[in-house]
Design brief:
Blueprint: H1 2-22, H2 28-47, H3 51-67, H4 70-96, H5 100-113, H6 118-127, H7 131-143, H8 146-153, H9 162-171, H10 179-187, H11 193-204, H12 211-218, H13 224-236, H14 243-249, H15 255-268, H16 273-281, H17 298-308, H18 311-323
Helix pairs in contact: 1-2, 2-3, 2-4, 3-4, 3-5, 4-5, 4-6, 6-7, 9-11, 10-12, 11-13, 12-13, 13-15, 14-15, 15-16, 15-17, 16-17
């Protein structure tokens, strides 16, 4: 309407004057007032879907926060810090909307706000059940740099509720490997059975030499299901360094863990594993009738070992198995 156009024109004129004086004003009180007006205008523009206009004003605030004199910098930095609170709810709403356009706009705002956007994004990560939304948030946090990623990892601590820790663990593949795996290893003593299963699912998707140490630790877990899964993963990933521990677990009190250890050793086709498998091929006990049988899965495992080994080694391994 005509009146709305007049209003928009007037607001744009006032805005231009504020921007003009923001870089010239020297009085601390006036500077603080100007910065607060800019902050409010940014929030208004974001609420109205004027993302480009809001980004332009954020750029002005950041420019003066870096290039202005000491008083100007202080006023603009305070406005930026306060902006994260006002814009945070809007950012959260846009990310949670599921609308690709709104999420794309939120990504632009988060990138412009930089570290000021971390807390609102962490709030989404901790509160939302939607896996796709958490994935978007993880990508935003990764784009904000190592400080933001460290904030995410700090949630893997003894006092974190199980549900929040689960949501964080499920997003970890978005952040890569390396230090992430080490942080997960440090969290293991505080993880319950459910979280250990989530950690194993995460480890199954990671290709890092640090995974081996975490799996070795989980192989000593008191819960048979966790030991079994850790053993299975070590076999699938063909972690040669786990062979000695797998050989020990071939004598585990839990039959299923024994079987998984034998299968894993067969996948490794290692020097440590074959003698163990040969020993387990022998009957465990003949009893009164003189009957006995090798442990479940061992014969099939030797076939796996033969298939996984180098062609030049297969004949010697088969011969060794026959000798046992």
């Amino acid at each position: 309407t005509y009146h709305q156009q007049r209003k928009d024109t007037l607001v744009a004129w006032v805005e231009s004057k504020i921007l003009l004086h923001a870089g010239r004003e020297k009085q601390p009180g006036v500077l603080t007032a100007l910065a607060e007006v800019l902050r409010q205008r940014i929030v208004q523009k974001l609420a109205g879907g004027e993302t480009d206009g809001a980004l332009a004003l954020i750029t002005v605030l950041k420019k003066h926060a870096v290039e202005g004199d000491e008083k100007t910098r202080k006023s603009m930095e305070q406005a930026l810090a306060s902006l994260a609170g006002g814009a945070g709810d809007l950012l959260v709403a846009d990310v949670r909307s599921g609308d690709p356009r709104r999420q794309s706009d939120a990504l632009k705002v988060a990138a412009k706000l930089e570290l000021a956007a971390v807390e609102p994004l962490l709030r989404i990560l901790k509160e939302t059940d939607d896996a796709r939304t958490r994935q978007v948030v993880a990508q935003m946090l990764l784009g904000l740099g190592s400080v933001a990623v460290q904030k995410v990892l700090s949630l893997l601590s003894p006092g974190t509720p199980t549900e929040i820790a689960r949501r964080v663990i499920e997003t970890l593949p978005e952040f890569g490997d390396g230090e992430i795996v080490s942080r997960v290893a440090g969290f293991l003593p505080y993880a319950n059975l459910s979280l250990k299963r989530d950690i194993l699912r995460y480890l199954s998707r990671v290709d890092s030499p640090r995974v081996e140490a975490v799996l070795l630790s989980l192989m000593g877990d008191s819960e048979p299901a966790i030991r079994q899964e850790a053993v299975r993963l070590a076999g699938e990933k063909k972690l040669a360094g786990a062979a000695a521990r797998l050989a020990e677990l071939a004598d585990d009190l839990d039959p299923k863990t024994q079987e998984e250890a034998c299968i894993a050793l067969g996948r490794l086709a290692s020097r440590e594993g074959l003698p163990v498998l040969g020993r387990l091929l022998k009957p465990r006990s003949r009893g009164l009738l003189g009957l006995g049988a090798a442990r479940p899965g061992v014969s099939a495992t030797l076939q796996v070992a033969s298939q996984n080994s180098h062609p030049s080694r297969r004949s010697s391994q088969n011969a060794s198995a026959e000798n046992w």
